[in-house]
Amino acid sequence: MNRKKGRDVRGVGVFLLWAVLVSPSVTWGKVLYGQENLKDIPVRSGPSSQDKVIASLRPGQEAFVLGDEGDFRLIVTPKGLRGYVLKSHLTDTSPAEKRTQEVEQSALQKTSVLEELVQTRDKEIAALREEQSRLETARQQAEARAQQHADTVARLQSQESMRESMEALNWFLAGAGVLLVGMLFGRIWGGAARKNKRSSLAV
In CATH, what number is assigned to the domain containing residue 68? Predict the structure, then answer.
């Protein structure tokens, strides 16, 4: 029984909260400003012109709205005082000074963002230049190594060509030597044979 009663109470509370939030006459939680064309805006203890003035708002001063009652709004002043102010004495347009400050602040923020972008771009450009310099150095080193390899290949080819020439010359000299030895041997052998023949004829 108590649980059911508790659910009913919560349901009524939720309904009332929903009704307050969606009601168009409620401006709770909104920040308004004192009209700039007025000198001092009276803040009263109650929602009527006969109620006592307990404070005042300066033109353009902020007021935190708690709710509406007839032609009055229940507000909280910047000093934390609760009171009522005529709706016509408040506006949702911020004062020119505040708007100027907001514009200046926005401009400063945009300037800061642009400066950060410029710094980021400069860093990226510097990084790209450094990378380009590194690649150029690597290219020069690769070209130098390629030239060294080409020189080594040319030297090896020259040495191989000289070796082949020397080998051919050695083979030629060897062949000529063999031929010369054969000729000498043939001449010696032929001379000895002729001498033996003469000796046999003489006998």
Answer: 2.30.30.40
